[in-house]
Design brief:
It is found in: Cell membrane. Helix content is 67%, strand content 5%. 44% of the residues are buried.
């Protein structure tokens, strides 16, 4: 009797060369921060101070390059290139897309710093000698600076690079893919593994520190509502468990169902909260400061961008504590946010991507920071008599103290806690999704247990670090790692630029001078076709006779020259035929013709000199190619004209293939 086979197949798409080294590094660093938190923090703080003191100019230069690079791309002819094939369409509506990228990139930070940052700059300005009546204006300026175009340019560089190489050239959704022009197929080897290990660790540590520090603010909010008596560790455990359980379920449900719906809901809740503060706060003051602050920011944009405070020694400590720390923090989050933005941006043009990523979230940030920050300053000056300024260094409770000066305080606290929770969930949810992708070298679908695994690991390590006081050490280590990743981002810019230039040259490549003279003189036949709207049967007959005969004749001649070609016919989804020449190291050459329906304009039908038609639909034989370029109408070509046109395309294909700079574009896509 055969024994029953009860073995269970354990499925995973983790890459051993990425997932295992990353997990080893994550656990080792977490143990050091947990068991030797004091010693580790001292070492990390020493390194951080050393880096910030001597290399702050490099952080400024890096972020400046990112801003100028994106603006240059958006305003150039390269901006029209799509993040995908030319016929790609976006996966998400514009609102859903903006909501998701915004929730992943800045959401929780707005709740945490919406009041506290402006109040901090107001209470302790960069220039200690600043006149009192200018403190609020300068506080708003630096808040705009830290949360505006510079921050989103950091995310945009990574997101744009990965979206382009993933959707335009079918490379894995991983940081390694952005190095293809430089490393070629080596991205699939050790170099690519090292890059992805760095990205995975940065993503994990960024989410862990945010989750840990955010729990403190949630506890403060729940204490203000008297839901919990204090911020004891057991309540922190409960909050983390609830957030991560929901995040894991959301991640398992899929990106479209989970993050999309939560992000849309939270943006609406955040706007509702902001409008409440605007209406019940000092409305005229808020609107006035927003208008003036926006102009003040624009007029100081260049000087802020390049300022390193080299001539203002007294402000350098403030500069390192705020601006450099922010640039480091945004860069450390760039692998995670950039990968997520790339994931949801298929089908957008480069210009659309850059303008949306830079301007829409930044403008919302400006409005949010003005509504909350300017309200807090006004209340501190006219109502609280300095009470809010005294809490400037305690952002965990400052937001809830700020709400105490408004009606319906309890409702505001409940709403803000709900928004914070959902922002946490979307950050953890999208983070789990991204970590799965990096650990599996860009695999699309991962086993559900892997999402649970990342959720459990995030919860355990963040709670253990909260318990042992090691979270501050981990945050410092994450900031230090920003500098090497900033160098990686510069290389991403170089590789992206190189690929885009080659892409543009490929798209506008002209036929050789000799091929321009390939034509025929059957103009009467052309005229007859021009004056006739073709029916489906006419186009099918053209494809099955003229085009097919051309392909058969050309295939035979190619065979005489030792070139093997295949003729493929299709009846659905569209009637089509194609000539294909296969290659090993290059993408296959493909020239196809398909029947495409076109709706005739009523205006043309009703015109006196227009061709007669019994239907509002006409059909054209349209070409298509293996590189997904947009095709064109060939109904006026004879058999010999079709052959000439195929040869023009084949000559173009061989010319492009002979140029080494086109290796990425000409490589196989499957």
């Amino acid at each position: 009797m055969n024994k029953l086979n009860t073995s269970v197949v354990f499925k995973t798409n983790f890459s051993k060369s990425v997932a295992f080294p990353s997990l080893a590094i994550i656990i080792a660093i977490s143990l050091c921060c947990g068991f030797f938190s004091t010693e580790t923090e001292e070492v990390f703080n020493f390194i951080k101070e050393l880096v910030f003191k001597n290399l702050s100019w490099l952080y400024v230069l890096l972020v400046t390059v990112f801003v100028l690079f994106l603006i240059g791309l958006a305003t150039s002819k390269l901006g029209k290139i799509k993040l995908g094939h030319d016929d790609s369409v976006p996966d998400y509506s514009f609102f859903s897309w903006v909501a998701m990228l915004f929730a992943a990139g800045m959401g929780i930070g707005l709740m945490y710093f919406g009041v506290s940052e402006t109040m901090s700059h107001y209470a302790t300005p960069a220039n200690a000698n600043l006149a009192v009546d200018l403190r609020a204006k300068e506080a708003q300026l630096y808040t705009f600076f830290h949360w505006g175009f510079h921050a989103w340019s950091i995310y945009g560089v990574v997101g744009l690079s990965l979206a382009y190489f993933t959707y335009r050239h079918n490379l894995p959704l991983a940081i390694r893919s952005g190095f293809y022009p430089m490393l070629k197929d080596k991205i699939h080897g050790r170099f690519g593994d090292i890059i992805d290990v760095f990205g995975l660790c940065s993503t994990f540590f960024g989410i862990t520190t945010t989750l840990g520090f955010g729990v403190v603010q949630l506890c403060a909010g729940l204490v203000s509502l008297k839901i919990i008596p204090d911020t004891d560790f057991k309540y922190q455990v409960a909050i983390v468990l609830v957030v991560m359980v929901i995040a894991v379920f959301s991640a398992i449900s899929g990106l479209g169902k989970g993050v999309k719906k939560l992000s849309e809901m939270n943006i609406l809740l955040a706007v509702l909260l902001m409008l409440f503060i605007l209406v019940f706060g000092p409305t005229i003051y808020i609107l006035s400061t927003f208008t003036e602050g926006l102009g003040y920011y624009i007029s100081h944009f260049i000087s802020l961008t390049f300022n390193t405070y080299a001539y203002e020694k007294g402000s350098q400590e403030w500069f390192s504590k705020w601006t450099i720390l922010y640039w480091a923090w945004w860069i450390s989050w760039a692998p995670y946010v950039g990968l997520f933005i790339a994931k949801i941006s298929k089908g957008r043009t480069i210009r659309e991507f850059i303008l949306a990523v830079l301007f829409i979230p930044a403008f919302f940030n400006f409005l949010w920071m003005t509504v909350f920050g300017s309200s807090a300053v006004w209340i501190d000056e006219h109502v609280a008599h300095g009470a809010l300024s005294q809490l400037a260094n305690n952002p965990d409770t400052l937001l809830f103290n700020f709400f105490s000066y408004f009606p319906f305080t309890t409702l505001l606290n409940v709403l803000s806690i709900l928004i914070i929770c959902v922002f946490f969930i979307t950050s953890a949810d999208s983070g789990i999704f991204i970590m799965n992708g990096i650990a599996s070298k860009g695999a699309i679908n991962s086993p559900k247990w892997q999402s649970v695994f990342w959720g459990v690991l995030l919860s355990l390590l963040s709670l253990s670090l909260l318990r042992t006081g090691g979270l501050a050490s981990l945050q410092t280590m994450t900031l230090i790692s920003a500098l090497p990743f900033g160098i990686i981002m510069i290389l991403l810019c170089y590789n992206l630029w190189k690929a885009l230039v080659a892409d543009n040259e490929y798209s506008i490549k002209k036929y050789s001078h000799g091929s321009l003279n390939w034509n025929n003189n059957n103009w009467k036949e052309h005229l007859e076709k021009i004056l006739t709207f073709s029916e489906k049967k006419d186009v099918h007959r053209f494809i099955d006779t003229t085009v097919k005969k051309a392909f058969i004749e050309l295939k035979a001649e190619l065979a005489n020259n030792n070139v093997d070609a295949n003729i493929n016919s299709f009846s659905s989804p569209q009637h089509a035929i194609e000539l294909e020449i296969k290659f090993d190291q290059l993408r296959n050459f493909k020239y196809g013709v398909m029947a495409q329906a076109l709706t005739i304009s009523e205006t043309l039908i009703n015109e006196k000199n227009s061709p007669d038609s019994d239907s509002e639909i006409t059909f054209h034989p349209i070409t298509y190619f293996g590189d997904h370029r947009m095709g064109y109408d060939v109904q006026y070509l004879s058999k010999d004209g079709i052959i000439s046109d195929v040869l023009r395309e084949y000559e173009r294909f061989l010319n492009l293939s002979s140029d080494r700079d086109n290796d990425l574009i000409m490589k196989p896509t499957n």
